[in-house]
From TrEMBL:
This is histidine kinase. GO terms for cellular component: plasma membrane. It catalyses: ATP + protein L-histidine = ADP + protein N-phospho-L-histidine. InterPro entries: HATPase_C_sf, HATPase_dom, His_kinase_dom, HisK_dim/P_dom, HisK_dim/P_sf, PepSY, TCS_sensor_his_kinase. Residues 234-406 form the Histidine kinase domain.
Length: 499
């Protein structure tokens, strides 16, 4: 409501200013018209008088000159003419001498004389030795212009009064969508609404476009916040498992290091392995967390050698896969080397990981005048059409039954809703059961649509195995191998008996 009042005041003020400027322009134009008209009349009278003066007119008496000059004046006007002959004699039209005397006592503003309640135009010119002066009364023209100006002012006042309701209506039309947008912004700011968009009015067009642009900005900001939150979630998820393993081995060294120093080397080796793994995780997460990074000028690079190199590395790592490349000899494209290498590595790694033995992986790299096309085809399980929109989700995999592969945290995916226990939680369950141990291995298995974690650990004396339900988080079965020294003695004794 306050905005509507302010807009009404603003528009009304602008309207009044415009009317004032129009009236001022009218007054200026009218004054110029009166001045030019009086000047033309005076010039016409002077030219006419000078054209009708002859040489013998110099001998006329005063009355004859008066009659001569009166002939060039309008009968009903308060005008006057004075004529100064070459011999210095000055004659006037009827009542002209008195009028010229009055004019001499008043200031002349560019040939305009304001005297009492009248306005006169004075013009003097010399023709053939005669000095002719003309005074014209322009009261009638000023009166006409003044009446017109007063009429216009009255019409302006009527227009202002009539325009107030229209201006109020127009202001409400503008202010209501703006106030609605302001309310939506305030609701978003105070988190009193679940929606993250403001009202988009159809009209006016300017506010419509403004609201659309603001919604795009909100959407971009919301996605940025989601990326940050997702990054934190991913980092926590990825780092929890190696941290839990490192802490477990540190606690194991603290408790048993003095009594069983042989476990220190193995635990330190495991800690070193997990710390290296964490370093890789940090780098991968930082690379994953970059969004719309600002590039400097990037020159084109040849992509074919990068594809060939990554293919060779993959074939060495996965002996059961064969990679076939279809591409020109050279393809240049502006991209950072590490970015393209990461893309190729991830695509090939996934293709090999989820394909059967002796699988073929085909890489097609082509470029036209617009696009660079990279295709990686494998013989894996594929992705169902209804899941196409999930391809770029973090940690998504089509085969949710094999949600964890190879024990690598960066390759773990979000399993179906039936799995509520993560690897690190399973390790914590193991430690709650047996205390801090060195973790030998952890694996998630699917048995008849039931997800079971199998966790193996050890210390200097025993080995431990635990099976944990990934949905209910209950320990299903535990197994402990006896004292390792006793076991070795028993094995030696049995061998002696056999001998």
């Amino acid at each position: 409501m306050i905005l509507s009042v302010k807009l009404t005041q603003l528009f009304l003020t602008l309207f009044i200013i415009i009317l004032f400027l129009v009236n001022l322009a009218f007054a200026g134009i009218s004054t110029a018209f009166i001045y030019n008209n009086a000047h033309e009349q005076a010039e016409e009278v002077i030219d006419t008088v000078s054209d009708n003066i002859s040489d013998h007119d110099e001998h006329k008496n005063k009355n004859e000159w008066k009659l001569f000059l009166n002939a060039y004046l309008a009968r009903q006007s308060n005008d006057a003419i004075s004529l100064k002959t070459p011999k210095g004699k000055t004659v006037y039209s009827e009542d002209g001498e008195e009028l010229f005397e009055k004019v001499k006592n008043h200031k002349n503003y560019n040939n305009v004389v304001f005297m009492e309640n009248s306005v006169y135009y004075l013009r003097t010119a010399a023709e053939d030795g005669y000095q002719i002066s003309v005074i014209l009364n322009v009261d009638d023209l000023f009166t006409l212009i003044t009446h017109l100006l007063l009429a216009i002012i009255i019409l302006n006042l009527i227009a202002i009064i009539c325009s107030i309701p229209l201006i109020k209506r127009f202001s409400r039309k503008w202010s209501q969508p703006i106030e609605k947008i302001d309310q939506d912004i305030e609701a978003i700011e105070h988190q009193t609404t679940a929606k993250k968009k403001v009202f988009v009015p159809k009209q006016p067009a300017e506010i419509h476009h403004l609201a659309q642009s603001f919604n795009k900005l909100l959407e971009y900001q919301d996605k940025a916040i989601q990326r940050e939150q997702q990054f934190v979630t991913d980092a926590s998820h990825e780092l929890k498992t190696p941290l839990a393993a490192i802490r477990g081995n540190i606690n194991l060294i603290k408790r048993l290091g003095k009594e069983h120093p042989e476990i220190i080397a193995k635990s330190l080796q495991y800690i070193d392995s997990e710390s290296s793994r964490m370093e890789i995780l940090f780098n991968e997460l930082l690379e994953l967390g970059r969004a719309k990074k600002q590039h400097q000028s990037i020159g084109p690079i040849d992509l074919v050698p990068i594809v060939q190199k990554e293919s060779e590395i993959l074939e060495q790592e996965y002996n059961t896969c064969s990679v076939y490349i279809s591409s020109p000899t050279k393809i240049f494209y502006p991209i950072e080397v590490k970015d393209f290498r990461l893309i190729i590595h991830n695509l090939l790694d996934n293709a090999a990981k989820y394909s059967q033995n002796n699988a073929k992986i085909n890489i097609e790299l082509q470029k036209d005048h617009v696009y660079l096309t990279l295709r990686v085809k494998d013989q894996g399980i594929g992705i169902r059409e209804e899941n196409y929109d999930k391809i770029f989700d973090r940690f998504y995999r089509e085969d949710q039954a094999q949600a964890f592969t190879g024990g690598q945290a960066t390759e773990q995916t979000q399993t179906s809703n039936s799995i509520s226990l993560s690897q690190s939680d399973a390790i914590n369950k193991f430690n709650e059961k047996y205390g801090s141990k060195s973790i030998k291995g952890i694996e998630l298995k699917n048995k008849k649509n039931e997800y079971i974690y199998e966790v193996e650990g050890f210390d200097s004396e025993k080995e431990y195995k635990v099976k944990i339900d990934a949905k209910s988080q209950k320990i299903l079965r535990t197994k402990t191998d006896g004292d390792k020294k006793d076991k070795k003695r028993k094995e030696g004794s049995s061998r002696s008996q056999r001998k």
